[in-house]
Design goal:
By secondary structure, this protein is an alpha+beta fold. It folds into two domains: 144 residues, no CATH class; 88 residues, no CATH class. Helices cover 49% and strands 16% of the residues. The protein contains nine helices and six strands. The strands form two sheets. The chain has a three-stranded antiparallel β-sheet. Strands 4-5-6 form a three-stranded antiparallel β-sheet, covered by helices on one side. A hairpin with a 4-residue loop joins strand 2 and strand 3.
Amino acid sequence: MTALLSFFMQLDESISFIIDWIEAPDDIGSPNRFLLWSMSCCHSLFPDRGRCHAQIDKTNARLHFKASGAQAMTQSHLPAKERLERIRSLVVSAAPVKEISSDTAGLHRETDGMDPAEPEVMASVPHTCPTANRELLLKHADIPAQLIRMVDALKQLTERQNADLNALRLKLEEKGGRPAKDYAAECAMKCSEPAFKAFMEARHGIARPLTDERVTDAVRKALMIASRADLNQDRQAAARWRAMVKDFEHWRRRG
């Protein structure tokens, strides 16, 4: 079994009450297994995020997902971006569902097997499973995929709005308004970035070691300013800084 299943089996098995929500073949792919387990854990039936439990039925080669309301299961907290990319990878890797069949035992998610004429059961949901949980389990890959698309769409919208806002700020700055951003602070951050230091070395021949102070001095000389604060007070200096940043971005893309 996978490391993920090993993790399941290490969970505390002291369970106050159990509801058998779903069973899946022992050989179901890891992405689908994890997505099914995640959906089992996320329903509001257990406000404390109740404990999910996995058991192996070696006789029938089945993997049973169960949930308990006893205690909440703690998970490591990864940065949001990394969590999103992991979920995205799982959704992309998950086997597609060919159809959902039904019989007296319950509903069965089926996917293509070795024989195209004989689909394989990916997971079975008994009729006793609560309606909302059934919907989550049957759409264990569709729901996160839809959420990811919404997140991506929101990111694109935010990027467009920020670009429009920055363009407006630049127009106001060109007409004598306040600086479009805190260029002095931006310059300070750039001068500490390894990529920008490499750029300054390549473009302006800075001698090593590439310390923050040495890069800052080179930037001041290149922009013909006495202090980074001038970038927020001198429009021409700010324009030269923007040109340097644009040159840096172009240099980095060529990479």
